[in-house]
Design a protein that fits this description.
Length: 104
């Protein structure tokens, strides 16, 4: 599987996290039991793959990083919205609203 974009890389990292969560549940319910070398091989493979994806595509490699990215996107949006609102209200209150878009 050749990954070509950041969104594909993020999808793959999310897929790995989901697999790890499901494997933990399956093992807790004694449906399957991996031997230590098998578990080590899977864990090593996933860690190396996520490390490669992180360095190549700058993905969110953990839930914490994903939450932080979402918070930053929301903060950026709110900041841009506040800036746009302040420019709009300044242009209205400056008495120059007869000009298009309040251009000074």
């Amino acid at each position: 599987m050749h990954i070509k974009s950041k969104s594909e890389a993020q999808y793959r990292a999310d897929q790995i996290r989901q697999f790890q969560s499901e494997l933990k549940i399956i093992e807790q319910k004694n449906i399957i039991s991996l031997q230590d070398p098998q578990r080590f091989a899977i864990t090593t493979y996933h860690e190396n793959l996520i490390s490669q994806l992180s360095s190549t595509f700058d993905i969110d490699s953990s839930r914490r990083e994903k939450q932080l990215s979402l918070g930053m996107k929301i903060a950026s949006f709110l900041g841009a919205l506040g800036l746009a609102a302040s420019v709009f209200f300044f242009s209205i209150s400056s008495g120059e609203s007869s000009r298009p878009l309040g251009i000074w």
